[in-house]
Fold these 2 entries.
Entry 1:
Amino acid sequence: MNAICDMTLMGKTKFDEVGRQKALDRLEVIDSKKEEPFERIIDLVKTTLGVPICAVSLIDKDRQWFKAFRGLSVDQRPRDIAFCDHAIRADEPFIVEDARNDLRFADNPLVTQEPFIQSYLGIPLKLPDGYIVGTLCVIDQKPRVFSEHEIAIVRNLGSLVLGELELRTIASVDGLTKLMSRKAWSDTVEKEVDRATRAALDLSVLFLDLNHFKKVNDEFGHDVGDLVLRETSAIISQSLRKHDLFGRLGGEEFAICLIGAPLEVATSVAERIRKKVEELVFLEHPALSCSISIGIAAFKPGQQLQHLLKRSDEALYKAKAQGRNRVETH
Amino acid sequence: MRKSKSDIAMNKTDELVESALADQPAADLPPQIRRVVDSHRQNLIDLANSLIAAGRSEEEVVRILEQASESFSLALQARLRETKS
């Protein structure tokens, strides 16, 4: 009996670790309390497959954390020994039929000690954005060949877990632009501000406003207005690093948190964004042009997010008062 | 014309899923949530088919679908409350 890990069927799955971790962070599920839907699914897995151990396992930076589990004595383990860390590396069920006779796992402490894993089936939990954040896994304490039917059942139960996870993201993602919602952005940036305070790091907040957006809606209609919001968001996203935080605060207002960026760097990024938006071309609407005003505030030790936002908003007001389509700092 | 086993199974699956989803909150869902609900319906159909293919009894399939659907309803209602607030 061998371990099966088909690396040929990756499709549109994304495997970069930074993006994967961000996708997991967006779910805001790590270290959350028990939730009935996940508990019920995990009960279903246990009874339907008749296994002693199963879990909704999420792979965080350096650990695996169990959103729901049965048959385990702890709710997290180091990532470097986790079977699930292998399972998230391909978009196919990951199967180990006899861990004691598998060179990769024979001396793994999870095999030689509690919980004495001998067989494992992990279904990757792939979010709609292509990132695999964890697995729905079933474990037996004896060697086991999982039948095609059993794999299909666990795979389908895995889809139900994904549905539950996806429901979580709805409130955190802006439906039109797919950027972070106001709440998600604020929650995430607040944590970054705390981190900047603790570690004395640089951080800047950009407040952006599309100029004369009401006029676009009035003259071209709301469909075109939506197109402008989507295209502008997309072109700005391309100008940012993966770990920068970009959100739509509402209407035509956006905010960006540039992590690790002092004021000079933020000003240069903002100017690049301003130019890119100014150069946007809408092929189906040649008469349409758009521009953006940006206000910037750099983090000062002891400041909270609300102060940073207020200061960047004041800088934005200055940019608008001085003729729009420009960048101003506080 | 006689129905094939897979036709019968499919009809049965539809019935089971409809029955399991009977208590789902109806209409006027925001489009994003509607998409997840539609996807959940398909997931239940797939789950029912895999259970039937594995030879599970109708009673067991019904019980599993009801339980799976109930859990989703709980999460859905919580999310709807959040999006309204």
Entry 2:
Amino acid sequence: MTAAPASAGEHLLAAVTAAIGRVLESVTEVGEAMTALACAAGAGQRPLRRADLAALRPLVAQVLARHRGFAAGAGVVLAPDALADAARWIDWWWADQGIGQLQVDLDPGSAEFYDYTTTEWYREPARTGQPCIAGPYVDYICTREYTFTVSVPVVDQGRFVGVAGADILASEVERMVLPGLSRLGRARQPAVLVSGRGRVIASSSARIVPGEVLRPGRPGSPGGPGTLGWPDRAGWPDGAGWPGTMTAAGPLPWMLLGGPGEPDEPGGPGRARK
Amino acid sequence: MAPPALTTVRARTLFAPLDAGGRADTVTRRLAQAIRLGLLLDGERLPAESQLAGQLGVSTVTLREALAALRTMGLVETRRGRGGGSFVRAPDDADRLELPLRLLSLHELHDIGDHRAAIAGTAARLAAERALTADIAVLREHAERLRGAAALTDRRRADARLHIEIAATAQSPRLTREEMDLWSEIGDLVWLPLEGADVAPAARDHDLLIDAIEAHEPARAREIAERHVAAETGRLLELRLSLHHR
């Protein structure tokens, strides 16, 4: 009874990990090209300038073309003072009908100034030197939607120059995993995909909404202990109390909770979704 | 001296197409605000009527109506003949400070307050349900920026960013977009360089609000957010009324 659904869960996690991993690979190529640019500038003893970044655009366009319908935007974001002719710089492109460049106000004196250095997708790779899958979060600058951003640090001879990254709409990830989650979930044991921080990405139950934070054991909740919710802040994230918890392999710290629990009574108050 | 050319950033901000139903008073308000903010400089020539109307997505009739209103307000001067056109006349300081308030009726100010309370209140409630530890750190950081901001532009930006971040913490793209729209509309009013533009009361409210979000207390978070907006609205209403007593 458990073997088949468990492997279905693993399959689901592996599929979504692979899809995001492919975007990460493409983004890594952009990051490597940017490292090469910075390195070449350094070797030529000339400063890196905005115009140099034009060399990356074919690669960025390739990321968007390769992941059309999945990656909504891609580009590079520079560390403050990495360029000689701009204190801060974003070279970011979005894909819709065609391809367009993101326009943001980077003048610190302006009322609309966008300080990207406080974002998770910039800060984490800068801090850890590792790729980052930020989100889901409300990206109010580029996609203006619920979004994941995958980003990789660009480092030239030990100096953090910026990040290369891509945006993935949360709705696309949901579309990808929902059929599988619905097959796995049971009314009393919904299948839920959560981020490493415990944020719901998608679930097989209408009572568990994306964006909610899942914390094991909500005392007094309608479903009783062992269901989800807040405000019990203890013990997260470890998946404790959740049968069938699986963690994705690789850089994607997502978890699949729930899954194969008690089968529903035939004709009972049924599956969350068919 | 030739009037300065419009930069692309300013052109995009000022002359972005208005929503359908954009009327003469919307155009009037936007241009008046741009003049007051110094985005359009004293003596600067506005684009030709047909071009400006096209950029704003309104008819030339509507634009002319708006320009007439701006002329009445003394913000635009139209010269005829060779080298003619519509020119910006920046108001003196006292007028400039009061202008955004004068442009709104008391009922409109009330209405903006109600709208803000609805958005900020719900955003605060959901943020208290959905915030992670990392989100709280970001909110505190922005609250701290507001406290440390000396210039009004910096305060306006920090305040707006904090409220937008709270809506983002609520995990709602729609509430976040509403906060963004509201702040681009009322940000200058909140940080009007008049009496009462002290940073301390707002900073205190924000600290309490973030405390409630961190403690996962949705009802309290909502109440604090609504009270915060009501206090700001009340201050603006008082200011607006006082303009009539001078």
